[in-house]
């Protein structure tokens, strides 16, 4: 039951934590919402402006430590409250299966049956925070329309109050959490009448009453005997503090499961040296009743684990936070993702206010990222420093041994070279990041005040550094591949489109977000005697092989165009070339010969989506272009030519299927939508129009396929 307590919940309310009328605005609003929909627990978050981070301001119904991994949440985090604010919508998660599917990070830490709703606290113009509410697993029905309406209206009212407070420059800060009243131990009336207490005292098994923080409000003599702790030492204390052999993450999980699900849970624990006890936990909204008895049929294990020191401080990082951090780091893709996670989830937990992440390349230190430094020069001044330099960041990277400095004087004494380089902080932890025995960097955590690093804290920071090192190693490799992929893509696609008489052109390319951000979509615009040729195509796959084949196809098209082949012959020749190369990848392509002087275009199509034509009057239609099969399939395939009129002011839109194909949208509907947007915005300058047509896809978090777009306008 380690780490379920949080002393902050009992702190006094700051003077400015209430509205001008003296009432705790957030607590009252949260309590009213919970009462209205009979929720089990909930919390209100406030949105900070710089950086935009959601911070838990008040929690109700459960200890705050249960939500410790999400006390401070960035807006890009994959958690319900962040999604609610980003999308300005209600998020409903009905059970643990849906939670595991949609929010695996939350499900890993809280694998219990419960339902959750998250809502934004926002006006039409400004977001002020978010709210979440939970119900135990006994709730089977979805959120009703009445509940949705009531919760949405309550959040809107709270947003208006926060807007007024901001306009009046009245700060609204965190408030005390809404939990059960403090325990008053030792009063016989705790369980009702004196006779009831006597009756419980005569029972042969142990009974304890715990509040939501695990503090003992009542214990009968049998419980004291079984736990081997006097009643007087149990009352008013947390059970795992008075009974240190219960200080185990396994028992914490059972405690959390009981409170979250509101279902009875149980576990068996070893009381040193060899007695097994059975614990049965019966939860309510105000606490737990615990039945304790001797366990039967449990075999004796090996040597008992050492009993923790009763006077040891509470854990700096709970098991749930470690699990959450591990899940978050596994999702980090690039180096900046790792830096952001350290800043958001590790630094606040350990009380650090500044962060620098250093890497090494070619025998020198390089600053990979930093947070919390008002003057960025203080964080970046060691960029490019040789690893042989006698400074802490380089030394821990060379030796693999962490260094902790509890004051500026201590750092300056051991490293005199730092005397003239004070960065404004007062204590530092320099943690080597070692992955698979290889040094990959150094994590520097800085503290605003002198800080004493206990033995436990040093061990925890060193362990966390191991998790960070694995994530950073993967991120460095990913970034290197990403740079390579983009370099290859840029080399294979035209850097710019040529200026041709009578033709205005613009193009855009967006890589898929899966794989290496590289693919086989391509386009080109080629001068051809008195005309011009344009081609757009798509090679199967999103990898280096697809990109390499794309380069070959583009080169072949240019070569066949240069020797004067007709459009249908260019496509046939390219098809035969692919078959001769023996590739297993297929290619779609659309080839055009443009002759604006004569007001026409000649096309040949190989399995590619048909182009759109916007006429000078603004009408948009799909060109019916007969075509042949994909390139690379049939050596005898024919690709008929189609001639279309191309009056001055006409606009051709060539695209790959990534622009119009989506798993949840019909192709015809997507094509009609693209035509509608082209019709409405077609008079824009061509570069602005290209940006407009790919705007939605450019901002999407997930793009399963590459996107290429080429716009060609016939000029007067």
Structure description:
By secondary structure, this protein is an alpha+beta fold. The strands form five sheets. A six-stranded antiparallel beta sheet has the order 3-2-1-6-5-4, sandwiched between helices. Strands 18, 19, 20, 21, 24 and 25 form a six-stranded mixed beta sheet that branches. It is 34% helix and 25% strand. Mean pLDDT is 82; it is low at 1-21, 180-192 and 299-315. β20 and β21 (600-606) form a beta hairpin.
List keywords for this structure.
alpha+beta, six-stranded antiparallel β-sheet, 20 helices, disordered N terminus, 27 strands, 716 residues, six-stranded mixed β-sheet
Number of distinct helices: 20
- Nearest-angstrom radius of gyration? 33 Å
* Helix/sheet category: alpha+beta
What's the pLDDT, averaged over the residues?
A: 82
Strand content: 25-35%
How many DSSP-defined strands? 27
Summarize the main sheet: 6 strands, antiparallel
Describe how the helices and strands are arranged:
Blueprint: H1 25-37, E1 41-47, E2 53-60, E3 72-74, H2 80-87, E4 91-93, H3 96-102, H4 104-109, E5 114-122, E6 127-136, H5 145-167, H6 194-201, E7 206-211, E8 216-219, H7 221-227, H8 231-234, H9 239-242, H10 249-261, E9 265-271, E10 275-283, E11 287-294, H11 319-331, H12 335-350, E12 354-361, E13 364-371, H13 376-380, H14 392-399, E14 403-405, H15 408-414, E15 427-435, E16 438-447, H16 455-492, E17 503-510, E18 520-528, E19 531-539, H17 544-562, H18 567-581, E20 587-595, E21 600-606, E22 612-614, E23 620-622, E24 627-628, E25 641-645, E26 651-655, H19 667-681, H20 686-698, E27 707-714
Parallel strand pairs: 21-24
Antiparallel strand pairs: 1-2, 1-6, 2-3, 4-5, 5-6, 7-8, 7-11, 9-10, 10-11, 12-13, 12-16, 14-15, 15-16, 17-27, 18-19, 19-20, 20-21, 21-25, 22-23, 22-26, 26-27
Helix pairs in contact: 1-5, 11-16, 12-16, 16-17, 17-18
């Amino acid at each position: 039951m380690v780490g379920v307590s949080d002393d902050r919940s009992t702190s006094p309310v700051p003077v400015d934590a209430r509205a001008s009328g003296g009432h705790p605005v957030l607590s009252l609003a949260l309590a009213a919402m919970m009462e209205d929909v009979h929720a089990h627990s909930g919390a209100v978050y406030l949105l900070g402006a710089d950086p935009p981070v959601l911070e838990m301001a008040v929690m109700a119904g459960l200890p705050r430590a249960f939500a410790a991994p999400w006390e401070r949440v960035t807006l890009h985090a994959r958690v319900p409250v962040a999604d609610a604010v980003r999308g300005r919508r209600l998020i409903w998660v009905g059970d643990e299966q849906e939670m595991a599917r949609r929010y695996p990070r939350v499900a890993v830490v809280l694998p219990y049956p419960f339902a959750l709703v998250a809502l934004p606290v926002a006006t039409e113009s400004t977001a002020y925070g978010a709210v979440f509410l939970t119900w135990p697993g006994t709730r089977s029905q979805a959120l009703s329309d009445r509940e949705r309406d009531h919760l949405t209206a309550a959040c809107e009212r709270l947003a208006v109050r926060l807007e007024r407070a901001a306009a009046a420059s009245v700060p609204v800060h965190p408030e005390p959490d809404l939990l059960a009243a403090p325990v008053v131990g030792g009063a016989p009336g705790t369980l009702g009448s004196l006779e009831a207490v006597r009756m419980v005292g005569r029972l042969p098994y142990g009974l304890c009453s715990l509040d939501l923080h695990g503090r003992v409000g009542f214990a009968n003599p049998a419980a004291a005997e079984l736990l081997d702790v006097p009643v007087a030492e149990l009352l008013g204390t947390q059970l795992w503090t008075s009974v240190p052999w219960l200080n185990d993450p396994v028992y914490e999980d059972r405690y959390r499961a009981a409170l979250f699900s509101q279902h009875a849970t149980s576990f068996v624990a070893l009381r040193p040296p060899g007695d097994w006890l059975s614990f049965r936990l019966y939860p309510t909204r105000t606490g737990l009743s615990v039945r304790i008895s001797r366990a039967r049929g449990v075999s004796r294990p090996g040597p008992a684990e050492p009993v923790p020191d009763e006077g040891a401080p509470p854990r700096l990082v709970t098991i749930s936070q470690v699990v959450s951090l591990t899940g978050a780091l596994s999702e980090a893709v690039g180096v900046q993702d790792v830096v952001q996670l350290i800043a958001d989830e590790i630094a606040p937990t350990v009380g650090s206010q500044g962060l620098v992440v250093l890497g090494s390349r070619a025998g020198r230190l390089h600053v990979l990222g930093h947070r919390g430094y008002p003057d960025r020069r203080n964080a970046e001044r060691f960029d490019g420093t040789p690893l042989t330099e006698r400074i802490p960041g380089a030394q821990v990277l060379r030796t693999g041994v962490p260094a902790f400095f509890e004051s500026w004087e201590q750092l300056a004494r051991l490293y005199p070279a730092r005397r003239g380089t004070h960065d404004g902080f007062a204590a530092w932890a320099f943690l080597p990041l070692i992955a698979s025995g290889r040094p990959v960097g150094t994590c520097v955590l800085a503290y605003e005040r002198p800080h004493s690093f206990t033995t436990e804290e040093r061990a925890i920071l060193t362990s966390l550094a191991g998790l960070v090192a694995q994530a950073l190693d993967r991120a460095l490799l990913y970034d290197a591949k990403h740079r390579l992929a983009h370099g290859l893509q840029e080399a294979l696609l035209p850097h710019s489109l040529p200026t041709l008489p009578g033709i205005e052109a613009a193009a855009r390319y967006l890589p898929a977000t899966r794989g290496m951000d590289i693919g086989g979509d391509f386009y080109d615009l080629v001068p051809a005697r008195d005309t011009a040729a344009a081609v757009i195509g798509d090679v199967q796959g999103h990898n280096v092989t697809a990109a390499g084949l794309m380069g070959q196809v583009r080169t072949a098209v240019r070569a066949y165009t240069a020797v004067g082949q007709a459009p249908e012959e260019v496509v046939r020749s390219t098809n035969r070339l692919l078959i001769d190369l023996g590739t297993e990848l297929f290619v779609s392509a659309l080839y055009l010969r443009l002759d604006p002087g004569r007001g026409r275009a000649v096309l040949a199509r190989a399995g590619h989506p048909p182009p759109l034509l916007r006429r000078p009057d603004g009408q948009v239609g799909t060109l019916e272009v007969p075509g042949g099969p994909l390139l690379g399939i049939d050596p005898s395939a024919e690709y008929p030519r189609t001639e279309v009129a191309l009056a001055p002011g006409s606009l051709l839109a060539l695209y790959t299927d990534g622009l119009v194909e989506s798993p949840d949208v019909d192709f015809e509907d997507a094509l009609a939508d693209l035509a509608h947007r082209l019709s409405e915005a077609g008079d824009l300058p061509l570069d602005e129009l290209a940006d407009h047509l790919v705007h939605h896809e450019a901002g999407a978090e997930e793009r399963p396929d590459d996107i290429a777009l080429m716009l060609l306008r016939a000029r007067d």
